[in-house]
Task: inverse folding
């Protein structure tokens, strides 16, 4: 059977696996943004926390993904087999680019702009929300884009610990030596990553220009 | 623009025996023994070499820095007792790089303080138009541009318009024309000196350019290594016999290429 007929015949299952995959990525990214951006904002003010936060985040990033899943499974509450463990691992992976870009974006602003903002009588929160964050947005978004690509990739591997998604086809295909099965997972996963990269890149350019 | 006649007797800004040093190092004085009264309506130019403490004095006025010793009074109240936000909203501030917000249009930049002060939209819009006209920029052409679509000289004009928008009684300027090419600089200096006379604001202007000081100042205060070494009207200033004054006046006569 050619891979194309296989994919066409099983389009319903592939579609639902793709949706599973996207759900996994969206949940993990939402959590990572909710954690990463505020911590990024915090470490701008606290140099002592900066080294610790960026250090921890880069350690998670360095651990191979399968090993990280392995470490998480025995941990009570967050561990075990399934989606929950996968989401925790994906969040840990996504954290570093978001954290780092939030910090870089907020600190890379022209000092003359910040000095005028302060001298014009803007309060600290006005400076943060009306000057720093809008000016850092494009850089933060670039971090979110990188993190999303990484998350789509790692989520494929998460099928190994029973998280579902497109990786399921790939692992099953490898086990059964079926190219058609492998491609049924690999093609949508690759397209998903390319699409996310394209759309977020579009958004990023739009913000940068305006 | 309703230029109120300034009552010269009132001291709008006063330095009382002020010293400023880097955080915890009292031996590293940036400025010391500063006593200075700036009456309302004066255009005071702080003149000095780089590192002489001019900018520090400026930042002590709007509370960007607070004096560890002595007091800086604005409208008879020490800056340490002012709410810094209220103090700064009443003081216009223009710096060399203009410091315009790159994500704001020209109009939004000029409207900054009126917006912070919750002026209603029609009043703010009218004020923006008025300010852009005042600094010689046609609102139709420039109001919707971004700062990066302007030349250096135009950015400084917007910087001045922004500083004046909420009609503050005091205007602080830190080498506002310092980064411009000589032709644009001369143009802005000329226009600004006319503007100064029309506005009747109290202006403290920092520069290292004696020519600029002579053009704009009603009084020149010369700083050297963090201390005031001379204070005089432009006319008197040229006749003062102090080594640092002579160093500055001699810089006037040495114009390379000019016939001896």
Result:
């Amino acid at each position: 059977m050619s891979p194309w007929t296989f994919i066409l015949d099983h389009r319903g299952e592939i579609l639902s696996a793709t949706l599973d995959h996207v759900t996994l990525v969206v949940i993990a990214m939402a959590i990572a943004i909710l954690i990463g951006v505020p911590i990024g904002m915090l470490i701008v003010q606290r140099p002592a926390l900066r080294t610790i936060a960026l250090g921890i985040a880069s350690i998670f990033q360095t651990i191979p993904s399968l090993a990280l899943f392995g470490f998480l499974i025995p941990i009570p509450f967050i561990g075990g087999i399934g989606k929950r463990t996968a989401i925790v691992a994906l969040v840990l992976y996504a954290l570093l680019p978001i954290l780092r870009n939030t910090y870089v974006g907020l600190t890379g602003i022209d000092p003359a702009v910040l000095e005028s903002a302060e001298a014009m009588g803007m309060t600290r929160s006005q400076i943060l929300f009306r000057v720093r964050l809008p000016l850092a947005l494009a850089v933060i978004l670039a971090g979110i884009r990188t993190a999303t690509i990484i998350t789509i990739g790692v989520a494929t591997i998460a099928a190994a610990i029973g998280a579902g998604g497109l990786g399921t086809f790939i692992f099953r295909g490898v086990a059964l030596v079926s190219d058609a099965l492998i491609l049924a997972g690999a093609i949508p996963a690759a397209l998903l990553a390319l699409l996310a990269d394209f759309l977020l890149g579009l958004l990023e350019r739009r913000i940068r220009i305006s | 623009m309703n230029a109120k006649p300034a009552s010269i007797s009132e001291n709008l800004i006063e330095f009382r025996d002020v010293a400023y040093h880097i955080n915890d190092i009292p031996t590293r004085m940036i400025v010391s023994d500063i006593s200075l009264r700036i009456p309302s309506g004066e255009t005071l130019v702080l003149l000095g070499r780089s590192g002489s403490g001019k900018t520090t004095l400026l930042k002590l006025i709007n509370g960007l820095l607070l004096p560890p010793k002595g007091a800086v009074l604005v409208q008879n109240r020490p800056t340490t007792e002012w709410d810094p936000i209220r103090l700064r909203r009443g003081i216009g501030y223009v710096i060399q790089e203009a410091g315009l917000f790159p994500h704001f249009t020209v109009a939004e930049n000029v409207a900054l303080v009126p917006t912070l002060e919750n002026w209603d939209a029609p009043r703010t819009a009218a004020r923006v138009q008025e300010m852009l006209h005042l600094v010689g920029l046609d609102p139709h052409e420039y109001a919707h541009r971004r700062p990066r679509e302007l030349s250096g000289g135009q950015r400084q004009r917007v910087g001045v318009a922004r500083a004046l928008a909420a009609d503050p009684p005091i205007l602080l300027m830190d080498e506002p024309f310092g980064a411009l090419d000589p032709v644009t600089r001369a143009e802005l200096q000329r226009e600004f000196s006319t503007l100064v006379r029309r506005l009747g604001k109290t202006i403290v202007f920092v520069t290292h350019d004696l020519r600029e000081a002579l053009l704009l100042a009603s009084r020149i205060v010369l700083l050297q290594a963090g201390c005031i070494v001379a204070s005089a009207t432009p006319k008197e200033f040229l006749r003062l016999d102090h080594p640092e004054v002579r160093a500055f006046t001699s810089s006037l006569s040495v114009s390379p290429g000019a016939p001896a």
Notes: Chain B has one domain: 11-252.
